[in-house]
Amino acid sequence: MSAQQQRFTRRRTLGLLSALTFAAATLGASHLAAAQSKPVLRIGYQKAASTLVLLKAHGSLEKRLQAQGVEVKWAEFAAGPQLLEALNVGSVDFGYVGEAPPVFAQAAGADFVYTAYEIPTPNAEGLLVQKDSPIKTVAGLKGKKIAFNKGSDVHWLVVALLKKAGLGYSDIQPVYLAPADARAAFEKGAVDAWAIWDPFQAAAEKQIGARRLATGVGAVSHHQFFLSARPFAEKNPEIIKILLEEVTKEGQWIRANIKEAAAQLAPIQGLDADVIEVGLKRYEHIFKPVDAKVLEEQQRIADAFFDLKLIPKKLNVKDAVLK
């Protein structure tokens, strides 16, 4: 082969390599663009939110949404207020919380909408004291320290129980702690009472003999809410519809299979199955679309927190609903 032919062959090879490199880069970029444009549903959940925990474990939602080309991502949070902070900054699209977190989140300017709710479960939260505590009534907590997660559903429970007992919020010393820290403080005797929800409530009853001074029965409804980031809900009604259908099916399965549900949750929640079973029985696992009555109850909660100066402005709860 002549020198000229060798130079020609070399140029041709380099040209082919360049073309292949460009094609590969172009193909890679197109795949990246496709991946980036693929719809994603980001769900925030708490370890105590058994319906969502089991929905995640069973994978039925992923199977349904895969057919729509939608990816599902899950993010765990310690409690409702932390979850809604993430929703507020755009880190999650959907979550499940109690009745107070949405009020605090709306007051902070979070752009979300009420999507569905669980029918009342007032027995699923309570105010605990040590088994040998001399305190026998809620009125006996005057001047005492009560631990609870600020802005959570038990924050409203404390406010409502105090009012029912003829006490004001200023009559107690609130100690704002997340569930794990609150339990530690409660066990050490650093606080006189602890307001908490199930399954943590049931765990404290069984493991350390905590006594329920009061529950939500007769004081609060204790609704649980499914909330969606407004932009996501507006753009993806079909995804939300499928999600709520799967949540409903999961709730029905739990009601029909309490023992099996508790057994599956035990290694995930780190509690004995019998403890989880007690907690599961205190929830209803029945979900409904948000209606005027439940929004009126949320408005009463918002008004009460505003009157106590626990939120900075008066709210219109109906602003957090899709028109």
In short:
The protein has helices spanning 3-37, 50-58, 60-66, 80-88, 100-107, 153-164, 179-188, 200-208, 230-235, 237-256, 258-269, 273-281, 292-307, and strands at residues 40-46, 71-77, 94-97, 112-118, 125-129, 145-148, 173-176, 193-197, 211-215, 224-229, 287-289. It has 323 residues and is α/β, with parallel strands linked by helices. It has a six-stranded mixed sheet, sandwiched between helices.
Question: How does this model look, in words?
Answer:
- The protein is globular.
- The termini are far apart.
- The protein has helices spanning 3-37, 50-58, 60-66, 80-88, 100-107, 153-164, 179-188, 200-208, 230-235, 237-256, 258-269, 273-281, 292-307; strands at residues 40-46, 71-77, 94-97, 112-118, 125-129, 145-148, 173-176, 193-197, 211-215, 224-229, 287-289.
- With 323 residues, the chain is of the alpha/beta class.
- Helix 3 (60-66) packs antiparallel against helix 10.
- The protein has a six-stranded mixed beta sheet, sandwiched between helices. Strands 7-6-8-5-9 form a five-stranded mixed beta sheet, sandwiched between helices.
